[in-house]
């Protein structure tokens, strides 16, 4: 945001709406999860939208987070020895975490939603690589396959469901819509 000039008129209104979507309580929950997942070595950000953004900006914390969700030996993101300081290197690091980094880096509320989705998937996967309180995230719905016997399937063919409705006793007698047709000669 530092590379943009002041916002006026409609631009300022749009920016204000984006900033109102940012959730401080969600920030706290995400920081707790990232620290629990990655370890204390990732540090903690200063409180607030700007501190959270600076913490995630170079992509190292995000890379460590996504790597922590994989078993040893199959880490998808290469983490450099020194954190990148040049903007394009930071963007490359974030791009490894998320293909559309530019879109999300401008909208921290979208970054939060993305991290929430990642956390939910990690809890749902339940493969032993998730660390932290599983109650921080909602589990995604999973398949619940049902098996029916032949007799249960035959019984179902004899039932008329309520959604099929009924036309018993229905007619259009006495119904009129609008005026009758006028024939002019």
TrEMBL record:
Residues 164-174 have a biased composition (Polar residues). Residues 164-185 are annotated as: Disordered. It comes from Aramus guarauna (Limpkin). InterPro entries: Calponin-like (IPR050606), Calponin_repeat (IPR000557), CH_dom (IPR001715), CH_dom_sf (IPR036872), SM22_calponin (IPR003096). It is found in: Cytoplasm. PANTHER family: CALPONIN, TRANSGELIN. The keyword Transferase does not apply. The lineage of its organism: Eukaryota, Metazoa, Chordata, Craniata, Vertebrata. Pfam families: Calponin, CH. This is Transgelin. The keyword ATP-binding does not apply. Belongs to the calponin family.
